[in-house]
Amino acid sequence: MSPSHIERRDVTDESHTFEWYRDGVERPLWRLFSAFGTDRLGYFGVGLFTGLFERLASLVPPFVLGVAIDAVFTQQTAYQLPFVPEAWIPSARIDQLWFSFALIFGCFALTAVLSTVRMLTTDYYSHHLMYVVRTNTYDKLQRLDMAFFDNQQKGELMSILNNDISNFEQFFDDALTRAVRIVTVLVGITAFLVYLNWQLAVITLLAVPLLTLFTLWFMRRVEPVYDAIRGSVGAMNTRLENNLGGIDLIKTMATEPYESERVADVSYRYFETNWDRIKLATVYHPGSSLVTNASFAVTFLVGGYWVVVGPPPLLSGTLTVGALVTFLFMSQRFTGPLKQIAVFIEQYENARASGKRVVGLQEMPVGVDDPPDARDLTAPDGRVAYDDVTFGYDAGDDPVLTGIDFEVDPGETVALVGPTGAGKSTVLQLLMRMYDVDDGRVALDGHDVRTLSLSSLRDAIGYVSQENYLFGGTIRENITYGTFAVAEDEAVVEAAKAAEAHGFITDLRHGYETEVGEQGVKLSGGQRQRIAIARVILTDPEVLVFDEATSDVDTETEMLIQRSLDRITADRTTFLIAHRLSTVKGADTILVLENGEIVERGDHEELLQADGLYANLWKVQAGEVDDLPEAFVDRVARSD
Ligand SMILES: Nc1ncnc2c1ncn2[C@@H]1O[C@H](COP(=O)(O)OP(=O)(O)OP(=O)(O)O)[C@@H](O)[C@H]1O
């Protein structure tokens, strides 16, 4: 029986896919901000305020200029400035000029200082936020179960961790300051314009409702386009990642033209989706510019008419040249940032589409996780039991394993043999909880593996497979992966000797410090396997799993490794999967799997006497018969 708190995720169900979670995300930017953005919020606040005062300070010079024109040059009005006591204002014209210069220059200097503070704080905040979101998203990704990775392309995940999270940073850095400018415009300059001349301000502000309607139109249309762009970036990364990973296959199959076409297809899809965005942007950007420029031109016309002829119809009062110049300067400060709304909206839509993908990933449930009251396995004995286990990778399909039932005492060696695709590797994946059983249970030391903490469970098991991953780095770094700095040099050498790797390592010019290349490409398959075996020996686990772990080494080396392993596996529970039956001959128990079921079990002698599938496979491998009997050929073929 499964513990009640564990529900297995049906990866074939649409409602459990990444796409389903991504599409269901609402207000992604707010979600990311509230989850991760509150740390260092002080920087955000300082950036926001300095940005605001920076804009306000930049508004003072044109205002002073207008006053100076009217009071110093044309002498139409007295020299007066709001918030400045009259006693501070000099009476001589030349002193008023110097005073104006000091104010203008002082504001420029203040703007520069505020700008530096704003850049430092917002850049720090947004880059720190990007770092936090990226590391958290990666941590989450790492916890997701194998079923997720089986169904997800790595290129797509790379584009989320890389491009999408960077978009998020850009939004909070660049778009934030843009937003500050826009807010300053809408509040600050509007107040200034109204203060200067409310009648003329109404004319300038007519652009706002028009621009709002136009922006809403644009947002509705561009939203799905940005979703498509982010999707096409993911698809392109997936294609490139696949092709670079399979470059040797492409070369040996001479499929370069075919692959060039496939890359061209995804690149073209990216171009097309971008082109859709550009088409919309080419209407929106110039359109919104036209609206704001038109408001400036109309303000100029109405104000000019007012100065030359007198108040236009419906307007009243007087307007001096200086006041008009100030107003026009101000309204340009108004229209300039107003045009920035278009850029902000695009950045927002881009970040929103990226945010959906990041939050979608964050929301994916972890199918295989620590239970709430996880038990830590301490000093395990290595007793393993499979209790009538049934398992299938995809819930809709036939199970891959049915009725798997066996027990292993501590220190025993159990071999799993059988035709390819029979389910041997799957059986052992369940022991490490790479997947959870559908029915029945797998137990270690009497505990259902689903009740144990994943780290203590996996610490107890050392796993070496046919395809071992080596990280770019030195041989020493790869052997000590998992034990890291704890591993003593002598222990590393001992482990390498036991894995028959010491000899070939010391033959290399740089010995243990030899760089293995990406994924160990600079080593042979057999050398990689031996490094992986040394790595596992060094971790000193209670249970060892060798899944075709010596398939890439020659028979002599395999025998040497076997000899060393006999010593290491003597008092540990060991599982062996091997097609080469000589490797498993000495196992305490051999389980023969066919079509996901255990069809024979016993030791080597017992199975030979039973004269079933194992005995026939043995006879072929030992050269006692040239071929399998017809009946077994049929069985093996059917089981694949
Ligand atoms: N990640 C996966 N997702 C879906 N199906 C899978 C997955 N891994 C394996 N299978 C299927 O499960 C079945 C058993 O595979 P498994 O790798 O356990 O067989 P095996 O006996 O170890 O084969 P081999 O000897 O070739 O390694 C196969 O039909 C395979 O196609």
TrEMBL record:
One of its GO terms (cellular component) is membrane. Keywords: ATP-binding, Membrane, Nucleotide-binding, Transmembrane, Transmembrane helix, Transport. CDD domains: ABC_6TM_exporter_like. The keyword rRNA-binding does not apply. It is found in: Membrane. It is a multi-pass membrane protein. SMART domains: AAA. Its main location: membrane. The keyword ATP-binding applies. PANTHER family: ATP-BINDING CASSETTE SUB-FAMILY B (PTHR24221), ATP-BINDING CASSETTE SUB-FAMILY B MEMBER 6 (PTHR24221:SF654). This is ATP-binding cassette, subfamily B. It comes from Halogranum rubrum.
